[in-house]
Queue: 4 jobs
Job 1
Amino acid sequence: MSNRDRFEAEQLEFESKLQSVSETIRHLASSRQGDNLALLALLRTLEGLHQEIRDTFFQESLPDSRQALYSLLKDIEASGGWPYIHRMKLQSLLTKFQDLADGDVASIFARSDSTAAVETID
């Protein structure tokens, strides 16, 4: 088996494993649909993995020549850009509450404050 054939076989195996991981994550998220705390934990885990891979393995693998760097940048541009995990803005989260009447929103925060006060007293 030539080096090129070996490289292509390894690449196919990597892509297959990556697809499997993606399917597992989708299934995990789907199984917790409606459970905002579990989904938030999943998002935090993915963000942590992104940062860990970027700060360790990816940085160590960066090219050491101009030609290799140019090739990497060209591939990044052609493949859709730099991977980025977008964080939901608080404003986007608060739009979920727009349908509630002002009194309902006030009662949510009032319950939250009274619960905190009771916990503080205990």
Job 2
Amino acid sequence: MNIGGSEFYLRSDDMESQGVRIDKWLWAARLFKTRAIATDAIKGGKVKMNDTPVKPSREVKEGDIIQVQIEQLHKVVQVKSLIHNRVPAKMVPEVYTDLTPPEEYERIEFMHAYKGEWRDRGAGRPTKKERRMMEKMKDEF
């Protein structure tokens, strides 16, 4: 596939039978910013493949279901194609199918909305303006 003068191979027939390491695939599919972060998440037990914990060297195959915990978000994806290099953001839908339930995204959005109500210790009482803003945010949900 040619995008912007650069070639990105989603899958070639000779590489299809081999598979790709899960840490490399997670990085290439843009689920993690670096491969080292992906490896640390796998070692920390935040990544499961087909409901079982994995090691960074585990190979990904097409059709595998991967569960990833990224901060508070529990993301579930199904592998569409094997990739060996990082792809542009526009090509992500060709790499995996997002199976994350919409309720999960709503939960994260809700958490971010109410994060504004949290006050640091010693910050004092909210001002009248801050209180009105918090009440307005609560009414929207």
Job 3
Amino acid sequence: MPSINNDNLNSIKTQKFIYLTTVGRKTGKLYTKELWFAIGDGKIYLSHEGDYTDWMKNIAKNAKVQVRIGSVNFEANGKILGKTDTEPRELGMKSLYAKYYGPTSKEVIDDWFELSTVVELTRLS
């Protein structure tokens, strides 16, 4: 399967789902989850409303993940963005909202993601 580069990163941004594989923080087993995603400034953004899920807890313990989007596979580092990660968090929220619902105001986006955690994936070279 093809490896990731800037050209195919742009070509996969219209795919609906990402398949994210994390390493279980307790078991060490690989777990794959289907999620919505968006791309902004060459990074991939994910989010979840509410408590941390297992995939998020796994990233918190081991940031290295495997990614499949369409036929493209690559490894990435995941980072859970806190409220102090203002710029990347805002970019992630805006990218996610725009991809699935269309453009809107900052106020709507802030309200939509008020209870959400945003995760940023950076591909490894």
Job 4
Amino acid sequence: MRITRYYKTDRGQRLGASRHALKASREPVHVTTGDVVRVMRGDDKGKEGKVIRVYHKTGRITVEGINIVKKHRRARTAEEQSAIVEMAAPIAASNVMLIDPQSGKPTRVRARTDKDGTKERIAVKSGQSIARNR
């Protein structure tokens, strides 16, 4: 007769908790939607554009007019026609710098907490406050 063994599993953790933590993790991104940024590295180096979308899971951003790729779009209805559409693809957020509101040059960003507890972004070059455009 075979003796069945019961192995102890890690019952303290919820099943799949480690996988959930990996999927729920976010990359810190220094820009938000609506910011004007300049591309510092890559094919579009030197170009400026507005941030359309921020992907927090991957640490990438989509900038208007930057990293334009061609996408083959299939017709979804009988009246619609298939086409090759140009669209902005995401780039790494580390390859862009925020534009200083005072001088118009790229700058690093520092965070400062006011006396009332609100957090604001400060341009390192000029010390000016950068408004959040949401």
